[in-house]
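TL;DR need structure tokens for one chain.
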Amino acid sequence: MTPTPKESASDREILLVGPYGVLGTGVIDAVAANPAWRVTTAARRPAPTYRTQTPPRHISVDLMDREGTIKAFSNLDAVTDLVYAAYVEKPTMAETVEPNARMLTNTLEALARSVPLRRIVLAGGAKSYGFSLGAFNAPAKETEPRLIAPIHYHQQEDIVADWSSKYGASWTVLRPHLVMGPSLNSPMNLVTSLAAYAAISRELGVPLRFPGRREGWNTLQETTDAELFGRATLWALGEDKARNEIFNVSNGDVYRWRQLWSELAAFYKLPVAEPLAMSTVSEMSEKGPLWDSIVARYGLHATPYEQIATWPFVDWMLNFGEETILSTIKIRKAGFADCIDTHESFRRQLTKLRELRIGVDPLSETVN
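>> reply
TL;DR here they are.
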């Protein structure tokens, strides 16, 4: 029977593909806080050891391998819904299209053999509006026409819509922007990167300088809390008005780095100096040994430097000079009105890094 908005989710089990990136982590946390839902995760890597709660059932799978994916997903009788948040990074946007389309296609083809899916939530993003091109038609609405540029989200949306039409499922695309949450080895995680930048600044005894240009310091930005994205995902899986729709999702407010930067400085008890534009890719490249010494000194989770920070993404985000605002009128009118103050969200994410022992305040002489 097709679920209605009032139907209990007690018989619903999510297959979460791409579970331990920043988006997937938010979904796992939302499920953990909502016992009506169950979840099975699927990825090449196992659950990270820094997570404190018992990980859900996990399937090891290489989504690039079609036959391997079919075999891995052959015994998922209890699964009713798919949340797809897997992503593979490539040097150019054009190069991301084929592998990301292939992973999604392999997943759906495998599930078609054994799982009668009810609903699919596909994680999209602001690249659909030109973020990856350095331009942004703010406030961006879901009705914006597609771009001529190669955007892998376009192909993925078509794949999901076609598959759902063929197999009787319904779909929802959620488009967050700059998701903030704890995760390691994610190609687009600003929280862990900025935490490492602040911790290293603290260890060196230097003030916290914003390493981007003035345009990035001053422009209006928007972000999405990982747990809020997770709650939006559960809402979309159970809401009739979300069927076969695309929704932007964000915290509900905007910020400027010149305002939010003080939260990072206060958390690490650092003075703030004037911004100084630099390439963090270049200037932070030799800080790996220092990071390793911080990890050893404070007994932190043993996180390789290349997993804690993604400096090309830091440079891109902190130098982005266009307003990045997504209109959330559509999702609010459909019934999802959850929100969080971005300053509160940022503090909460830094605190979670501390609790998980993957962030540190070097001068406190305590394990964070």
